[in-house]
Amino acid sequence: MRYELYYWPSSQGRGEYVRLALEEAGAEYVDVARRRGGEDRMIRLMEGRAIKTPPFAPPYLRAGNLWIAQTANILLYLGGRHGLAPRDEGGRLWAHQLQLAIADLVHELHNTHHPISVNLNHVDQIPESRRFAADFTRHRIPKFLGYFERALQSNRAGRGEHLIGARTSYPDLSLFQTVAALRFGFPNAMRRIERECPRVAALHDRVAGRPRISAYLESERRLPFIADAGVFRHYGYLDAK
User: What's the pLDDT score for residue 13?
Assistant: First the structure.
């Protein structure tokens, strides 16, 4: 099946989680909005009536006659279809649960630069961003990454190298992306925090070294992080030393 991925063309954002799963699966896909006229088409589809189950926002995926939106929901589908999730119901739910925890972390990460409203520019909420980011780096990142550290440690089948079972799953890929984003946005804080989460840090490096992921990271398909745009940003004054 040739998939159609719809996401904003200039930044990694939440669409990157879907791209990583598609790349690891070796699936054929089109990043629609990165093609000429693709972004307009993405918006028209989202705001029109052509889709019976319309998405609220990108990313969304077309898989044959299916239109699937919301990152965790897309990955739930791809995970089962491409061997990136357990086959049993309990395992699938555990993978989905981990992905939803990652979604919570990404939401809070976004709020470090837009704590009041997405309708305001970052420069209009810098004092609030400073306060939010201070709490995020001091308390929330350690809490989230500590949770994933414990999940890795408790997975005996994976010997602490995978979140689920003995093979790579889509939550592994998503945790890699989240750690990469946190390192970009908060390098000072992450140097401290990662000392307490060695398994999480090792998982990041292991995923980056997987053949298909490594090839993707070195290709033009992998968009760069942008300091002042998108979900994942870096403002030095928000990253306490």
Answer: 98
pLDDT for the residue 240: 79
Q: What is the pLDDT averaged over residues 110-121?
A: 98
Label residue 10 left, alpha or beta by phi (over 0 means left) and psi (-120 to 50 means alpha): alpha
Q: What span, in angstroms and rounded, lies between the C-alpha atoms of 52 and 67?
A: 8
Residues 106 and 36 in one domain: no
Range of the structural domain that residue 130 is part of: 89-211+227-238
- Is residue 118 one of the residues assigned to a domain? yes
pLDDT digits 0-9 by tens, 140-192: 999 999 999 999 999 998 788 999 999 999 999 999 999 999 999 999 999 99
At 124 the pLDDT is 98
List Cα–Cα distances, 83 to 22, 30, 71, 103, 167, in angstroms. 11, 21, 17, 21, 10
Q: How many domains does the chain have?
A: 2
Say yes or no: 109 and 174 in one domain.
Answer: yes
Shared domain check, 120 and 200: yes
The domain spanning residue 74 has which CATH number?
A: 3.40.30.10
In whole angstroms, what is the distance from residue 116 CA to residue 128 CA? 7
* Residue-wise pLDDT tens digits, 181-195: 999 999 999 999 999
Region 98-107: what's the mean pLDDT? 98
What is the CA 234 to chain-centroid distance, rounded? 16
